[in-house]
Amino acid sequence: MKTLAIIGGSGLTHLRNLSVRERRVMRTPYGEPSAPLVYGTVCGRDVIFLPRHGHGHTIPPHSVNYQANMWALKECGVTHVIAVNAVGAIKTALVPGTLVIPDQIIDYTYGRAHTFFGSHPEPVTHVDFSYPYCAALRETLHDAAIRAGLDVALQATYAATQGPRFETAAEIVRLERDGGDIVGMTGMPEAALGRELGLCYASLSVVANYAAGKGSGQIDLREIEHFLESGMARVRSLLEFAIPLLYDGR
Ligand code: HPA
Q1: How far apart are CA 28 and CA 23, in angstroms?
Q2: Is pLDDT above 90 for 10?
Q3: Nearest protein Cα to ligand 1, atom 9
Q4: Would you say the CB of residue 100 lies under 6 angstroms from ligand 1?
Q5: How many A from CA of 64 to the centre of ligand 1?
Q6: 88 C-alpha vs ligand 1 centroid, how far in Å?
Q7: 94-144 pLDDT per residue, tens
Q8: Domains in the chain: boundaries
Q9: Average pLDDT in the 55-65 region?
Q10: 2.40.160.20, 3.30.565.10, 3.10.180.10, 3.40.50.1580: which CATH number matches 4-248?
Q11: Which residues contact 155 (CB under 8 A, 6 or more apart)?
Q12: Strand partners, 87
């Protein structure tokens, strides 16, 4: 049986098309998740929603308890996770407002609790992470985009940075040289923790701005807000197609 969770990022602190049934406060061996889990339905299908930055958007990317979030979802029987992320465009063809279903990650974050396998005296455990996102769920998101009449970019490497400041222009040149197409602060260690728990995890990223040095001046926070609002409206309509596709295949 499948159970879907949606992790909302900046610009998506609640799901407007979610009929809420209950909110459940969770405790895990790693502490509390960012917020109570919101149980509800979208188009009649069960969905669990978790706002990554907390209900009032108060938890910055480097302080999110990614371990507690992913553990809580697993404990509630979640099998599939659609992670919504705001990102900047390194590749300028990905104009602000574009939806991206990334296929690769490079991790530049540090000091975050990034594994469930870090403590003695457990046996040393390694997980395969060659293809960090779940292929089947990416395919579902792509099909949903086609049905919703929305353009999405499918081949993009997500560069995960530490934040909360934006990058320097030189840092973006380096990320570009490394092969990064989009840059965001929340993609890791969330994806890796999901893999360690055996969750089928994919990201739906919304381009909110050109990355540092790629636009015409400084990064403009009002512009980010504007593109996040229109981008998240598109995320909601994509999800309305993705959810029945995931549960019923149509
Ligand atoms: N850099 C990092 N994270 C981001 C950006 C950015 O330019 N835009 C939205 N999240």
Answers
A1: 16
A2: no
A3: 87
A4: no
A5: 16
A6: 4
A7: 999 999 999 999 999 999 999 999 876 778 889 999 999 999 999 999 999
A8: 4-248
A9: 94
A10: 3.40.50.1580
A11: 103, 181
A12: 207
